[in-house]
Design brief:
Strand content: 15-25%
CATH architecture: 3-Layer(aba) Sandwich
Distance between the termini: 56 Å
Pfam family, one: SCO1-SenC
Radius of gyration: 17 Å
Family: Belongs to the SCO1/2 family.
Largest sheet: 5 strands, mixed
CATH class: Alpha Beta
CATH topology: Glutaredoxin
Keywords: Copper, Disulfide bond, Membrane, Metal-binding, Transmembrane, Transmembrane helix
Strand order of the largest sheet: 7-6-5-10-11
Protein name: SCO family protein
Structural class: alpha+beta
Shape: globular
Number of domains: 1
Organism: Hwanghaeella grinnelliae
Mean pLDDT: 86
């Protein structure tokens, strides 16, 4: 038993579980100590006023702000291209949800702009975020910036992230894994949890955009 408890695999597993718990607790605090109310079982309406903002760089090297998408609903996800599992899973869901919405309600889909913001600007430059984003959906815009610009953007959405160094010299980024639906006025009107089914995300977006 002692060998199991002290094995590298067991220690890494416990560290991973603790990281997930820590991220969840921090997110719970940041959303006002409550998940808010459910407009349906598809999307969380935040209990506190969250107004996302950013001034970042796209794959072409142009600075982008929410003002570049007038009248649009923004579907925003924070992650990084070196993420081993969570980010690819969530972004695949975003892409599938957009496809479903485009097929079921093209008018509503045209009002939604999906955006990916990296929390690892050191490795995710403009070219990298552009290619990475397009892997999941042709309309998904990848954004990066300086450390300070990323920190400001994450803070406005109350996103938690932190670097975690590995024994082999590489590092991972711990981060909250929510997808934010932002209204045209900049207020977050819906939050989708990690592993939300794409059908549920599409339905939630349709309800929020129509409402």
């Amino acid at each position: 038993m002692r060998r199991i408890l002290t094995s590298p695999v067991f220690v890494a597993l416990v560290a991973g579980i603790m990281a997930v718990v820590a991220v969840g607790f921090i997110a719970w605090q940041q959303f006002g100590g409550s998940q808010g109310s459910l407009s349906s079982d598809k999307v969380i309406v935040p209990a506190t006023d969250i107004r996302g903002d950013f001034n970042l760089v796209n794959s072409a090297g142009d600075h982008v702000t929410p003002g570049d998408f007038p009248g649009q609903y923004l579907l925003v996800y924070f992650g990084y291209s070196y993420c081993p599992d969570v980010c690819p899973t969530d972004l695949a869901i975003v892409g599938q949800a957009m496809d479903i919405l485009e097929e079921s309600d093209a008018t509503a889909a045209a009002k939604v702009q999906p955006i990916f913001i990296t929390v690892d600007p050191a490795r995710d430059g403009p070219d990298t975020v552009g290619v990475f984003a397009e892997t999941f959906h042709p309309r998904l815009v990848g954004l990066t910036g300086t450390d300070a610009e990323i920190a400001d953007a994450a803070s406005s959405y109350r996103v938690y992230y932190a670097r975690r160094d590995m024994d082999d010299g590489n590092y991972l980024m711990d981060h909250s894994a929510f997808t934010y639906l932002v209204g045209p006025d900049g207020a977050v009107i819906g939050i989708f949890k990690h592993d939300t089914a794409p059908e549920d995300m599409a339905e939630g977006m349709a309800d929020m955009v129509a409402g």
